[in-house]
Amino acid sequence: MGVGLATPYLTLAAILFCIGLYGALAKKSAIIVLLSIELMLNAVNLNLVAFSKLGVQPNLTGQIFSLFNITIAAAEVAVGIAILITLYRIKGTTDVNEMDSLKR
Amino acid sequence: MFGNIVSFLSSGENIAFFIFALMAIGGAIFMISFNKVVHMVLALALTFISMAGLYVVLNAEFVAFVQILIYAGAISILMIFGIMMTKHQGEEEEPKRPVHNVLLFIGAAAMFGVLFYCIQNSTLPAGEFKAAEDNTLEIGKLLFSAHVIPFELMSVLLTVAFIGAIVIAKREED
């Protein structure tokens, strides 16, 4: 049973990831969907940093990997907001339920 | 069970972990349950800041400050700009898909159950950790020696992404 110092961190990351998953799939506002995806990425970062201290071979590579992850997240959110603004200009809504042009 | 918790809370590091974890989960839950979009963004900013606190507990000071700069600063502000530029009807009305939401909740809870079971049943041996004297210095050395190619790729990716964002969001004059 759960030995290891990293267990609380992994559990917290799992909780945050599942909350983010629920938010990304249940919320209607596209901005909140983007934020929930950020929350999921953050949970992954927490795992990386936790293993960089409490893993089998602690070293700084985990932290560097999480820095790369943060960069990717920033790029993703910038493009996401840009798409959102364009879509709002075209359709006049940010409701993800109405973004179904490809389904018709 | 409770003896475990008491012994867990006996060291200062674990108390800090507990407080920050509580703040992180609280912010995330508030993000789910609030009605107004701006309140949701602010609740998630609380989560991001407490994650930075967790990184400090984990001896990752540089990542912690990057987290505050990028997430609590830039991404929250970008989201608030997004809210400003699009019109929201103040609050989200009642969800029209109760079945969808219930199934989703069950799915998310089941996924957490699976993850929790795996985490509890795996042995995670901890290696010898010695904190770097200057965390930022060591990260800088590693970034510019061992990881220099991913680093440069990342700068190219950022440039491409931001130019793409500007091109997408630009108003077309016609």
Structural summary, described in words:
The complex is a heterodimer of chains A (104) and B (174). Chain A is built from three helices and no strands. Chain A is an all-alpha fold and 104 residues long. Chain A has one domain: Helix Hairpins. Chain A is elongated. Chain B has two domains: 1-90, Four Helix Bundle (Hemerythrin (Met), subunit A); 134-174. Chain B is built from seven helices and no strands. The termini of chain B are far apart. The model of chain B has no long low-confidence stretch (mean pLDDT 86). The chains are: A mainly alpha (104), B mainly alpha (174). At the A-B interface, helix 1, helix 2 and helix 3 of A face helix 2, helix 3, helix 4, helix 5 and helix 6 of B.
Number of domains of chain B: 2
Order of helices and strands of chain B: HHHHHHH
- Mean pLDDT of chain A, nearest integer? 87
- Please tally the β strands of chain A and state the result: 0
- Name of the top-level CATH class of the largest domain in chain B: Mainly Alpha
Task: Flag low-confidence runs of chain A.
Answer: none
The major sheet of chain B is characterized as: none
Radius of gyration of chain A: 17 Å
Radius of gyration of chain B from the CA trace?
Answer: 21 Å
As a percent range, the share of helical residues of chain A equals: over 70%
Task: Describe the structure in brief.
The complex is a heterodimer of chains A (104) and B (174). Chain A has helices at 7-26, 30-54, 61-91.
Question: Which features does this protein show?
Answer:
heterodimer, A: 104 residues, mainly alpha, Helix Hairpins, 3 helices, 73% helix, 0% strand, B: 174 residues, Four Helix Bundle (Hemerythrin (Met), subunit A), 2 domains, 7 helices, 76% helix
